[in-house]
Automatic annotation (TrEMBL):
Family matches, as InterPro entries: DUF1980, DUF1980_C, UPF0703_membrane_permease
Pfam families: DUF1980_C
Protein name: DUF1980 domain-containing protein
Compositional bias ranges of the Low complexity kind: 128-149
Keywords: Membrane, Transmembrane, Transmembrane helix
Organism: Schaalia odontolytica
Transmembrane segments: 7-28, 40-58, 78-98
PANTHER family, per database record: UPF0703 PROTEIN YCGQ (PTHR40047:SF1)
Domain DUF1980 stretches: 152-277
Xref: NCBIfam families: TIGR03943 family putative permease subunit (TIGR03943)
Upper lineage: Bacteria, Bacillati, Actinomycetota, Actinomycetes, Actinomycetales
Amino acid sequence: MKVLDRLAPIAQSLSLACLGGGLLWLSLSGRYASFVPPSARLGIIASGVGLLACSLALSARLGLSEHAQNDSDQARHALTRTFVALVASALIVLPFHVSPSELASTAWSARGADAGANPGLDAGNEETSSAPTSSSDGDTPSTDSQSGGASAVPSAGTLELTTDNFYGQVEELIANGRAHDGQRIDLVGFVVSPEAARGQASIPRVTEEESFAVARMAIWCCAADAYPVGFAVRWSGPTPEADSWVHVSGTLRVRGTKALLIEADSVTPADTPNPEFVLQTR
């Protein structure tokens, strides 16, 4: 019997064990949250256990008669499957990381923002849309919004945005912005430069009055449909480096009808949250 024919089933069994172990490590270590939402964890665990079971089943067949293992074509197919499984295992465990702005700038991200985002979660370009809004939707909302929401009563207390409530709170600030004008806000996000923020539907335009934007990446299915959701920040201090994580505290201000502008009184470095993504709700 050829050495290749003898080694092929052993290699295939070991590669399936590596892939199954990699999936279990991905789910138990929490690294899966860099690619998919928490709801996918059980499926990843089940897949890992299933692959380990297949590996054990293949290893149990290694003692079969030689004629069952003597097919060269079958051995080549087994080695092909082994190669694919080992490549997948390596991709799972390699410590690569894509920066938020790189992910946001991809075509997949833009497509996810256009097709997957809730229509109510559109930060819009209030500088260019405020005039048509005042003529087509009535004068009262435009007057209130451009006056800075002086007649609105700010919500009490500080609004703390966390990984769990980030997306839902941004939805609220878009839908009922004037009600939150003047409210204190506290959040952690990554820094988006004015250039990178341009063209992102869920981040307000960063004008000359603002220094940068702060955002989190929202996902629905997986990292392939991720897109940034966040705020424009007015800050008199030094502008933090793009893609760095910062803790921002300040006061919400309305632009147009949406409270997605922060007058910051504190911008400090922050640790990268785990998970980095926030889950898009429907």
